[in-house]
Write a structure and sequence with these properties.
11 helices; 5-stranded antiparallel beta sheet; 477 residues; Nuclear Transport Factor 2, Chain: A; Glucose Permease (Domain IIA); 10-stranded antiparallel beta sheet; alpha+beta; 22 strands
């Protein structure tokens, strides 16, 4: 075959094979599709045989991959927003909570304010304090319309605190005060007006113990033992039916007290109530146990379950001294002649409250010659008492019943008197008796079922008092 014919034949054969290569996969697509895995597995396990065109193709692919790797980071940077990397912070004001919003959330929001605390000084009024801090009279009146706020805002005492928060321009934004020991009020101000929220505050009661020995006075001994003056008065009230703290105390007398104290958020608010106490006076030990009976009445009882509250008070006024004793033959300081002094005179500052010595009914209230302003109480069971020289009366009227300890008037020097004092008389079936020595009727003991309940509750307290007393005696030796 001539050379030209062989070349032409080779070209036709090559074209025919190429055409078959193009049309054969299309005709047998389903075959290749179903056997593709087996096809590539055979290709992968077949021995490699590289030719010149394979090496050329591999070189071209490697060069293209290198170019793409270099260009890609620049392309990514080209699509990035140059401003996107700068963060912008916007100060957006939070809208105020509505008046009926959750109280706890509103009160919590109040804690974010920068508070300035103002302590009440002697003689200040809440109106003056609020005016200085930018609270308008209208807002104060709105707060007072809530009856729960009245005591906290009207009957303020020195040392109480109010907190205020102001904006940068001096405008009042919030105020805060304690409605009572358990409730805090937070008031916020905004364009919509005033919003009040309350938050409950938990109280904690802790048990305290104190022991003191009297050398100078009861107050000095109690203060050295860590008790404040208010607790001393409670101690005197508990034992006041058995001990005359103005006359009967002696150096060496002692007391042991278990009482509770009230704390809030780690801060002591005040001393609470006496739970149990011993008082040794002139070698005799008295006990006082606080007990609430099944009917809800709370009183002090002795260790054997007898009420310490007697039918009558020995001294119905807080006095400084006895200026005149009961006597059947005393020279009258004004009249100048001798006559019976059928009562006891208790010297006290003008205006000192006078208390009813026992439960009873007022049968006289007015002026009597010599007595000045006087009140007479009928206590029933043959007993009556008289209170003279009052500067003024309390609100009780004739015929009204009064309870033991209730204020019925105030110390003065009306009538025949040389100085302010209370003239006190005690009568049994109309006969005058010495108030300092008369035998008082004994109180009724607890009934059997109540007594058993009392002993169950008081036993731990008495055991603790006995242990404290023994420790004090051991340390004194």
């Amino acid at each position: 075959m001539p050379q030209t014919n062989r070349v032409a034949h080779f070209i036709r054969l090559t074209a025919h094979r190429a055409a078959r290569g193009r049309h054969l996969p299309r005709r047998h697509f389903h075959f290749y599709k179903s056997h593709a895995v087996h096809f590539w597995l055979r290709k992968a396990t077949a021995p490699l045989s590289w030719r010149h065109r394979h090496w050329l193709l591999a070189g071209i692919l490697f060069a293209a991959a290198a170019i793409i790797g270099v260009m890609a980071p620049r392309g990514a940077n080209a699509t990035r927003d140059p401003v996107a990397s700068d963060f912008i912070t916007l100060n957006l004001s939070v809208p105020p909570l509505p008046a009926d919003a959750d109280v706890g959330a509103t009160a919590l929001a109040g804690s974010a304010f920068d508070w300035t605390t103002v302590a009440v000084k002697s003689g200040q009024t809440v109106g003056a304090i609020f005016h200085e801090q930018g609270v308008s009279g209208a807002d104060l009146q709105a707060l007072l319309r809530d009856k729960d706020n009245t005591n906290a805002l009207v009957r303020i005492r020195p040392g109480e605190e109010f907190s205020f928060a102001h904006a940068a321009d001096g405008r009042l934004t919030a105020l805060r005060f304690d409605r009572d020991e358990k409730t805090q009020v937070t008031v916020t101000f905004d364009a919509a007006g005033m919003h009040q929220a309350t938050a409950a505050r938990d109280l904690e009661h802790r048990t305290e113990v104190a022991h003191g020995v009297i050398s100078d006075s009861l107050f000095d001994a109690a203060n050295r033992a860590g008790m404040d003056d208010a607790m001393v008065i409670k101690l005197a009230d508990a034992f006041g039916y058995d001990i005359d703290f103005a006359q009967d105390l002696r150096p060496g007398d002692s007391f042991t007290v278990i009482y509770d104290s009230v704390w809030r958020e780690g801060e002591k608010l005040r001393d609470g109530d006496i739970q149990a106490a011993y008082f040794v006076n002139r070698g005799k030990r008295f006990s006082a146990i606080r007990y609430t009976d099944s009917h809800g009445g709370t009183m002090f009882y002795s260790a054997d379950g007898r009420p310490l509250r007697k039918s009558f008070l020995r001294t119905p006024v807080a006095f400084t001294r006895i200026s005149s004793y009961f006597s059947l033959a005393r020279k009258h300081p004004i009249l100048g002649y001798t006559r019976a002094h059928q009562g006891v005179d208790y010297a006290a500052p003008t205006g000192t409250p006078i208390h009813a010595a026992g439960d009873g009914r007022i049968v006289f209230r007015g002026w009597q010659h010599g007595y000045g302003n006087v009140v007479i109480i009928d206590h029933g069971r043959h007993y009556s008492t008289l209170y003279g020289h009052m500067s003024r009366f309390a609100n009780e009227k004739v015929g009204q019943r009064v309870h033991q300890g209730q204020t019925i008037g105030f110390v003065g020097m009306t009538g025949l008197a040389t100085g302010p004092h209370l003239h006190y008389e005690f009568r049994v079936d109309g006969v005058h008796r010495n108030p300092l020595t008369v035998t008082m009727p004994k109180p009724e003991p607890l009934p059997a079922t109540e007594l058993a309940r009392f002993k169950r509750q008081s036993s731990p307290m008495l055991a603790r008092l006995d242990k404290l007393d023994s420790l004090q005696l051991a340390s004194a030796k």
